[in-house]
Specification:
126 residues, mainly beta, Cathepsin D, subunit A, domain 1, seven-stranded mixed β-sheet, globular
Length: 126
């Protein structure tokens, strides 16, 4: 499946269309757009999406932001689906400040993914 880069950013950013749910619950939200960030260790989900799913924190942690500052965060467990590929029980950081889903390596390393910058296409490979 191919996904166009989001041209609302400069430079355009690679994205995937995804669906979120909480393990062992029927509620699913999506389609949502997730930014592919191969430099991020973990995946960030805005808390307003987690609240829609009635997700509850499963742990707390400290993360270091892009400027080197450490901050406390709450961790949640979600099932994340792109196309027919579901990664169950993925630990994600609840982002109280942002409005963008950021897909980090804890998710991306489970996919075969081609980022074709010149064509501005992300392609999920079989």
């Amino acid at each position: 499946m191919k996904y166009a880069y989001d041209l609302n950013y400069t430079p355009p950013v690679p994205t995937l269309e995804l669906y979120l749910s909480v393990p062992e619950h029927d509620t699913m939200i999506g389609p949502l757009s997730g930014i592919i960030d191969t430099g991020a260790d973990g995946t960030l989900i805005p808390t307003h999406y987690l609240n829609q799913l009635s997700a509850t924190p499963v742990d707390d942690a400290w993360v270091r932001g892009q400027w080197g500052e450490w901050q406390p965060v709450l961790m949640y467990m979600v099932d994340l689906r792109v196309d027919a590929i579901t990664v169950p029980g993925l630990y994600v950081v609840g982002d109280e400040l942002g409005d963008e889903i950021v897909l980090g390596r804890n998710y991306l390393n489970r996919l075969r993914l081609l980022l074709d910058g010149p064509a501005a296409i992300s392609e999920l490979l079989g």
